[in-house]
What we know:
Elements: H1 3-17, E1 27-30, E2 38-42, E3 52-58, H2 73-81, E4 85-89, H3 110-129, E5 133-143, H4 145-153, E6 175-179, H5 185-191, H6 193-201, H7 208-215, E7 227-232, H8 240-252, E8 258-262, H9 276-289
Parallel strand pairs: 3-4, 3-5, 5-6, 6-7, 7-8
Antiparallel strand pairs: 1-2, 2-4
Helix pairs in contact: 5-6
Amino acid sequence: xxxxxxxxxxxxxxxxxxxxxxxxxxxxxxxxxxxxxxxxxxxxxxxxxxxxxxxxxxxxxxxxxxxxxxxxxxxxxxxxxxxxxxxxxxxxxxxxxxxxxxxxxxxxxxxxxxxxxxxxxxxxxxxxxxxxxxxxxxxxxxxxxxxxxxxxxxxxxxxxxxxxxxxxxxxxxxxxxxxxxxxxxxxxxxxxxxxxxxxxxxxxxxxxxxxxxxxxxxxxxxxxxxxxxxxxxxxxxxxxxxxxxxxxxxxxxxxxxxxxxxxxxxxxxxxxxxxxxxxxxxxxxxxxxx
Length: 290
């Protein structure tokens, strides 16, 4: 496949995934005072009896402000239609613009502050806003930059001593399903994934090396939590090599991470309710949740 053909295919996949209108949640709660510190809740559809598992969703968008949880709301509603209770987390993203006019990737340390605070607040908020849910059965998922945040959130107990976000023990998650995640910062940076978002997220050249220890999922293994990565083989935004590097780092640390590779699938079909790949994602989540 030529570069032009691959780019055209990726653009078509993105257009399809983002063509679905946003789906309003059943409820929204705050976990802080900032306007972006919000969580949307989707009650399970599908007629499942008894308490149902919870899927916590962290959206992607290269940690950049123009991409909020609205674009992933059809995916959240799709999971609710599969019988899951769903919590979709918003968080602070990059503000302003780079010298080239592009939105900034992420905010240090606010992006991590928010994800940590949201995860800490979720058990009580789930009991309040999702009475059908079983807060003991939680699977964390995220797409692209959100996949990095999902892996990071499951590894907070491995953060360096003194880190503000560190927890004393592992999170009580059933598992993590990371979708085309920016899971290895060194490899993603080398490949220029998401237009250099990784290096920018950590504050540029001056901070990249020192902050990786606090942010790079590939340095935060083994988590002790069941983890699966779902990756399209034709993804040109976050190439397959990034997922494979994370799985290799986990293996070297003594942990087996599942990697599900999908043929003829790029970056966006994983969250596109109209794509077959999205159904595969739901099945991967179900395997950990039920």
